[in-house]
Amino acid sequence: MRVPGFKVGVGMVGLWAAIAGLSAWHNLDMLDDQDRQAALTRARMVVTVIQTTRLWTAKHGGVYVPATEATPPNQWLVDPLRDVEINGRPFTKINPSYLTRQVAEMINADERLNLRLTSRRPIRPGNAPDAWEDQALVEFEAGLAEKLELVAGASGPVYRYISRMLVEEPCLKCHAPQGYQVGDVRGGLSVSIPLAEFTVVSDPIRRQILLVHGLGFVLLAGASLIFLARLRESWLRLDAARALQERMVAERTTELSAANDELARSNAELEHFAYIASHDLQEPLRMIGAYAQLVEKRYGPALDQDGREFLAYLSDGAGRMKNMIDDLLAYSRVGRAEASLADVSLEDLLANALINLDAAIAESGATVVRTTPLPQVRGAAPLLVRLLQNLIGNALKYRRPDLPPRVMVTAERAGPEWVVSVTDNGIGVPAEARERIFQIFQRLHTKAAYPGTGIGLAIAKKIVERHGGRIWVEEGPAGGSVFRFTVPAASPDVASTQQGRP
Ligand code: ADP
User: Fold this and answer.
1) Which end of the chain is less crowded, N or C, counting CB atoms within 10 A of the terminal residue's CB?
2) 270 Cβ contact partners less than 8 Å away, ≥ 6 residues apart
3) In the predicted model, what is the mean pLDDT of the chain?
4) E strand segments, 124-231
């Protein structure tokens, strides 16, 4: 895996910037919405009050107020009763339109709100719409009832609102001559409120949002970068450790494989030497044996007691040496022989081994039992026969003097292999010697007590290891010993048929 670097850092900072930016944008947008909502509410309220007042005035057919300089007679009002005198004082009629204009003038004196009555067909030309109003009035004709928009004003952004004014019954009095009918769009009440009216409240919140988000971004991005730096540091340390470990493993592997090669080479040399030596020793040994026999036969009667005894030692020594050489040859052959593996029946292997041990079995009065049927295994038949022969042979040899030998051969499946056990009721192997006896020439007894060369179990071990297995000895149930070894199970089809059997 790659160590997180500069790009990841930039990516993380970018991610936090995007998150903080998005969140800030969302909050600011909500604030804008809030301002807009406030503007709409305020504009609607103004319009409602004005509309109601207008309606009230229209319902009364207008109201009379003293005619003054500030409130001169309405030149656009065509009404015979426009100007009257009450108690000698001139009064003039205020219709809804005039009322709106007068109230609007008062309202507009305060710059925070601007109110205006407008129509596309005004009686008073001053009520003609500006471009924005005209557009809204066109939309009203198409069914729109009100409109709010933030537009650029002379001194900053302004919320412009306009509400549709429909012709009602009382309006017809003045407007019927223009051809209006009840329900027609007569015009609109237009309200303007500077945006500043609302931002005065919302701007501090805006600033707060920006500050909080900015701070949050700096903190999170900083923390992420610190975390990344730490991560990078430990990653690099880990990488270095891993590289070191890999280097060490590679070095050890090379060393081990060199040592293995060396071991295999010296083993092969040793085996070769053992083979050559034993092979070459056979001939002179045979000569010693043969001539000892010849001397005994021809000159035996001429020799005295000592001479015959010495000759007997000579023959015995030659005989034992022959056994040792045979065993050594057998040992070196196990390593040298081509072991061609095949599926073989352990049953058959055992039968062959028992034939070879026939004399020993008869002589010792032994019983050999086995679980039936013994399985199919994969191995080299001659080697496996020799293995069984060595183990059963030992079971017969290392028997108790008072007990006829009883040997049991069993097999248990363990994953891809079988564990074969040879159990006896003999003298057993002391716990401390259970490893050692598998080494060549290792014996626990004198030749007088039990004859032997100390090679049989070394051969057994070699055979098992050539099959990729293990061999070991345990204490037997009846005080004797159990020699166990593993051997690969036969190819799957054979093995499964075998396992399927009761
Ligand atoms: P050998 O039998 O020629 O001495 P082995 O290599 O076959 O050589 O056996 C090595 C030693 O292991 C034997 O000397 C004996 O002490 C011990 N041993 C082998 N098999 C048995 C057995 N079944 N019961 C008790 N001891 C055994």
Assistant:
1) C
2) none
3) 90
4) 146-153, 156-166, 185-194
